[in-house]
Amino acid sequence: MQLDIKNENGTSVAYISGEIDHHNAADLRSQLDRYIISSRPSQLVIDLEGITFMDSSGIGLIMGRSKLMKTCGGRLSVHSPQPYIRRVLKLSGIERIVSIT
What we know:
Elements (H helix, E strand, L loop, with lengths): L1 E7 L2 E10 L4 H15 L3 E12 L1 H16 L3 E5 L3 H10 L6 E2 L1
């Protein structure tokens, strides 16, 4: 799993590649939380285009970061999930919490 966060036109974009599972979700969560707390972005986009596998820990990761962003006065959205990941996200109902594009 790899994480690269860039600021693009005033929006922070977290590019994640590889797999999100229970083995690496805690590390990813920690890295994102540190960034959110220190940078306080108004908009954070989690770009999932490079994700090859995601289990329920990915859903928990997104839900937790959405809550933290709201606490810090910002918004979270998810972009470019692979079709099967998009389906898992829709089935989980997470699109009621975050925008998925």
